[in-house]
Design a protein that fits this description.
By secondary structure, this protein is α/β, with parallel strands linked by helices. Helix content is 37%, strand content 15%. The two termini are 46 Å apart.
């Protein structure tokens, strides 16, 4: 398996945005680590005196995935030291034991040697880190390569930066390398070249696709050939439930330091913790940390300490047991949804079956010229079903008859009822006579 090399061929200074290069160390945050020196008396930070904080203890319960049925609850009571860390300001990159835990997890999970060339930092959710990565790498107005359809949460980032998204086509196997190559090969020589490709490689939001290993390798080769960084936004990695082994991550295949990988605890521990981590080349992570130091100082200390208490008790084995339970849960939800799709939408929609994540992406069979926007936003809504029309996932707002449905929450009866209602609306588009199934 590939492992990183500490002497990277990549010149990161040519990747950093002007804004990233102009950022200066926060004069206090940059010195905070010195407080760890034994015997030093610190008059440095304006840390509030914790004796004035009303919270004096933090206890909670969490299910233990390594218990016989995985449901046994452990009681956690944070130590005095953990409580004071949880309630106080902390380092920009995160609370040290959590950062160290995450480093080891990434090295193990993605088969990468611990190496000073790459590091991790904790953020307030993946969204926070993705925004900071774009800001660190892209100058306003610079083009960015994005898979299409793309996670709708990143579209406002490109829009606010005035950065034209270059839509790369995808299918059920993920990003299409031929589309990527065509865009890069035809790039006009007088225009700045795109420096990043944004992609969600497992259980894509919205398309549900998991990119095949062959394609990942081809895309990495293109990154090397055309000199760009892959932003691997991967909140659904642990929600892989396909029957074939999970393909390796871009980060695990990367030998040149061309991947910035985003993991999130939102789908595996709790979305409200607002915790995620980014893993990748040191110069890029450092630039993102400078952004954090001037934007929000750090991710929440309290939730970092809570997450660390749980993860360190479980160990990597416990995390694997837990996430395997989570993915099994979503596989069952996927199966229910798939069955209901077959029952209600056969002949009225076309789809591929997702192997990870929580989304079904399907194309409505509509009369010529029809698209899903009005049908979903108005007619389906009136009929009592809420979903998202595909158009919101295309930066250019292209007309499409695709729809994204999330299968994470509804139970079997509710799924059947939702798709039954949708089927009625689609049939009405055909005046009650949809084409017969071949
Ligand atoms: C592809 C993708 N990226 C990022 C996020 C943001 O997640 P969070 O900020 O909760 O980590 C989401 C949330 O649904 C997502 O689907």
């Amino acid at each position: 398996m590939a492992s990183s090399s500490s002497s990277s061929a990549v010149d990161y200074s040519s990747f950093l945005s002007d804004l990233a290069k102009s950022r200066k160390e926060n004069p206090i945050r940059g010195l905070l680590h010195l407080e760890l020196e034994p015997g030093l008396l610190s008059l440095l930070a304006g840390k509030p005196n914790p004796t004035t904080f009303p919270i004096t203890s933090i206890s909670f319960k969490a299910r233990n995935p390594l218990s016989a049925d995985g449901l046994e609850e452990d009681e956690y009571t944070l130590s005095t030291a953990e409580v004071s860390t949880a309630l106080q300001y902390n380092f920009v990159a995160g609370v040290v034991p959590l950062v160290e835990w995450v480093l080891k997890l990434q090295a193990f999970e993605h088969k990468r040697k611990l190496d000073p060339a790459w590091t991790v930092t904790i953020g307030s959710g993946g969204q926070d880190l993705i925004y900071k990565a774009f800001s660190a790498l892209v100058n306003p107005g610079d083009p960015v390569l994005v898979e299409a359809p793309v996670y709708a949460g990143v579209i406002p980032i490109f829009e606010s930066m005035g950065s034209p998204p270059i839509e790369i086509e995808t299918d059920a196997d993920g990003v299409d390398p031929a589309s990527l190559r065509a865009a890069l090969a035809a790039w006009p020589s007088d225009k700045p070249r795109p420096k990043v490709l944004y992609t969600v490689p497992y259980g894509n939001n919205p398309s549900g696709a998991t990119t095949t290993t062959e394609r990942r390798k081809e895309i990495l080769a293109l990154a090397s050939e055309y000199n760009f960084i892959i932003l691997e936004d991967d909140p659904y990695y642990y929600l892989y439930f396909g029957s074939a082994p999970r393909p390796p991550s871009y980060f695990s295949l990367d030998t040149e330091g061309r991947v910035l990988r985003f993991d999130s605890l939102s789908k595996v521990l709790a979305a409200g913790l607002r915790l995620a981590f980014v893993t990748g080349p040191l110069p890029i992570i450092r630039a993102m940390n400078l952004h954090t130091a001037s934007a929000n100082l750090q991710a929440n200390s309290t939730t970092q300490v809570i997450a660390h208490a749980v993860l360190s008790k479980w160990g990597i084995k416990g995390l694997q047991a837990h996430t395997s339970g989570v993915s099994t849960f979503y596989r069952a939800k996927r199966d229910v949804f798939q069955k209901a799709m077959e029952r209600h939408l056969t002949g009225l929609a076309r789809w591929s079956v997702p192997q990870a994540g929580m989304f079904f992406w399907f194309e409505l069979v509509l009369p010529p010229g029809g698209d899903s926007k009005e049908l979903i936003e108005t007619k389906a809504f009136k009929a009592g079903v809420l979903a998202l029309p595909g158009q919101v996932f295309y930066p250019g707002g292209r007309k499409t008859s695709f729809v994204r449905a999330s299968f994470s929450l509804l139970d079997e009866d509710q799924v059947n009822e939702a798709l039954r209602r949708l089927a009625v609306v689609i049939r009405e588009e055909w005046g009650g006579n949809p084409p017969t199934v071949q």
